[in-house]
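check these tokens.
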Amino acid sequence: MKRVCSLLVFAGLAALMCVAQSSTPSAPSAQGASAVGHGAFPVKLTKALDSSKLKDGDAVEAQTVGSFKLPDGTLVPKGSRLTGHVIAAKAKSKGDSESQLTIAFETLNPVNGKPLAVKGTVQAVFPPAEEQAPNMAGKASGAAGGGDAEGPVGLITDSKTGSNMSSSAKPEPATDPKSVGVQGIRDLELGSDGKLFSGGKHVKLDNGVRLIVRVDIMG
């Protein structure tokens, strides 16, 4: 009889614990945010990156080279900051076949706007734009290297409706959100996962190097 009573008490306590657990709200997951928009836009590095001098976690910063709109209509002006960090950096050493550099972007900081969480990877790489010569002042900068041209650039698509929020004008390659791979930089390759690698001693991206960054805007 005592054994039966003990079993009944134990079963009752177990039932109460189950009710308590089901009524307690679970903590939100940091990974649980869903993408509200996705696409690509051009940026330029504000500081040189060298895989032989970098380590995992080092900060990376770039600036947008044109303006574009988010799916909700928010304007991201030219010169807005895109920040992230180094995921992996390796210089070529004895026995290695290549040097590597992988970076990821997490925050888009629109000028005079609220920071936005993003998941961004490198989609394309171009050399720095040539500085405009004094006698070229006032002329259009739409030729190759003119990534700082005014006007909407980039492609941010609403993840729900699929509507295209970009300009209909066809941009030059360094500002074209459809550009992929490495163009105009020798001995540098880009994997589909955003990893940069080179057969040289290190992967180096000079200050001003232009990137097309593929992003998910997180809600």
